[in-house]
Structure formats: C-alpha cells, structure tokens
Amino acid sequence: MDRNIRSRCWLSVPGGWAMPVVLGFEGSANKIGVGVVRDGTVLANPRRTYVTPPGTGFLPGDTARHHRGVILDLLQEALTEAGLTSQDIDCIAYTKGPGMGAPLVSVAVVARTVAQLWNKPLLGVNHCIGHIEMGRLITGATSPTVLYVSGGNTQVIAYSEHRYRIFGETIDIAVGNCLDRFARVLKISNDPSPGYNIEQMAKRGKKLVELPYTVKGMDVSFSGILSFIEDVAQRMLATDECTPEDLCFSLQETVFAMLVEITERAMAHCGSQEALIVGGVGCNLRLQEMMETMCQERGARLFATDERFCIDNGAMIAQAGWEMFRAGHRTPLSDSGITQRFSVFFHRYRTDEVEVTWRD
Ligand code: MG
Hints:
Blueprint: H1 3-11, E1 21-26, E2 31-38, E3 41-44, E4 47-49, H2 60-82, E5 91-97, H3 101-118, E6 122-126, H4 127-139, E7 145-149, E8 154-160, E9 163-169, H5 175-185, H6 194-202, E10 215-216, E11 219-220, H7 223-238, H8 244-270, E12 274-278, H9 285-298, E13 301-304, H10 307-310, H11 314-326
Parallel strand pairs: 1-5, 5-6, 7-12, 12-13
Antiparallel strand pairs: 1-2, 2-3, 2-4, 7-8, 8-9, 10-11
Helix pairs in contact: 2-3, 4-11, 5-6, 5-7, 6-8, 8-9
C-alpha cells in the first residue's frame, strides 16, 4: 500500500488524527535512543551508546545507570530537533522487550511516567518488530525476506498471515554476540562498536583460517565457532601463523556465509524477490556485499540501511508504534511492564508472537 493511500485510510478512522506523531524510547541493550516519527517521516532520532573498555562487555546494571543518566537530555534533544512540544505528541511507544532486564526497566519507567504526565496513550513495542518496520520504512521494501542480525538476535523472517514468521535462527548465541566476544579476546576497542572495528581489521586480512561451518537445516550455531577461534587465536597468534586481521577476516567470511545460506533458502521457499537486512550487524558492508551477490544470482533485490537506522534507535520503536497506534493498539498501564526473553526455550515475546494487525 503506498503511503498516500495509507494516510487517507487513517483520515477515515473515526476520531483519528490526520498525521499522528509517535515518540519512541529504545534502550534494550547498550544503546539508548529517543525518536519521533510523523506519518512515515523521521523527525528526530538522537542516540547515545554505552561504551566499555576493551576486553569487557556491558553489564545490565551499569548499562541501566548509563541510560538513566542521559534519557531526559535525549528526550529534550528529540523534541527540539523535531521542533515539537509535548502537546504535539499523540502516543508514547517504548521497547517492551526482548532485551536486557535492567536497561529495559529503566526506559519503561520513563516512558510510563511521560505518558501519564502528558496524558498520552502508551504502546509497548517488540524490539524485533521495530527493526523490521524501520527497515521497511527507510528502504521501501514491500514484502522482503528479512535477515535480522544483531548482538542479541539472529533470525530469518518472512511475513505471512499477520505474523512475521521465523524461518531460521541461531540455536545459541547471536552473530553479533559472537563478533563482540571475539573482539574482547583480541582486546579490540568497543568504540564506536566492536563489530565496526572487526570489519575494518578484516579488510586487511589475507589468510582464510578454516573455522567450523555450522548450519543446521534452517538454523545456525555460533558458540562452537567462538570457542574454536578463541583457541586458534591463542595458538596461531603466539606462533605468528596468522595475524589478528586474518582471524577477523576468517570469522566474518564464515559466519556471514552461513547467514547468506539460510536467507537464500528462505527466499527460495517463499519465492521472494526482496531481501532486507536489519539489526546492528546489518550495517557491515561485507555482509551487505555477500548478500548482494546472492540476490543478484537469484534476480532479487537487496535492501539495507546504514548505522542510523539499523543499529538500535528510538525512531524504529516510534515507527512500529506508529503502525500499531494507527491499527488501534494501546497498552494499558497495568500491562506496561517489560519482558526479557526471546529464547526458543522460553517461548516469550518472540518476533512471531506479535499479531501484525497493520499489514494485509
Ligand atoms: Mg536490536
């Protein structure tokens, strides 16, 4: 449906605003963002990242403390950048999950408070749905097979019958988590992100070190590869058999090839002519290049975004919230908590648990 038709539909909703403005809060991991979206336009999207020293990851309590320290400044920044006041906002959206518990709670508390102070409806948004809706908005992809790759998630998704169906996923850690943890082993800087620095080092890699290739049907596994390369790094770097750059290159080539393989199989199954990459790992240009090659060979189109929109941000939550708000969703205060889990073992708040009422 094109955007003009969409806004006309909205006008026909009794009591609806002509151009609803949604403000979205995101803070499920080490990024905190506040975004403002009006009818398909991103008006503001400021973000801060909690960066820890090389060799360390981010712990939930410290990350939540960081988010609490900057969230009100970010809110003010977003309103100023959008040129709006609280009166112009029609709905407050926030990330309900999945993600890290303490950061999620710190952001949900602010979203709930702001909604009550400003007397606006509240919407709890699934983080994964936020990534997908932002990708669709920015690229204009209509019905893509989605590769969602980040520090916390790895899924191949396609829309059907009011759900984003999961065709394949990691059975242990996310691909971004594998890259981040390898960066810690090599004491690679976390600024601006470990993945970005691995990508730069990989460009200077010359030797492909053979690593396990673990595709299991439509699923992938990264924890064994991580253990293997940690071991290899100790041994081969000590004897100068390879360089840290070679290892970054080898790790990227191996894990990205696995992701391309399962995405291609899902596209073949769905007869899909479009692929869309979302999530923080999605701004890796080598991954985009490998996906592009696969798409070209199948006569399909690749859609991807840059770091502003594929790395966690507030506008993605505002955009998913905008779709939900328009479709009549509201989250009552009594149900405005958070949920951490996305795991296949716990069956809570996975991408395919959300009923996508805003699509045909
Ligand atoms: Mg994410």
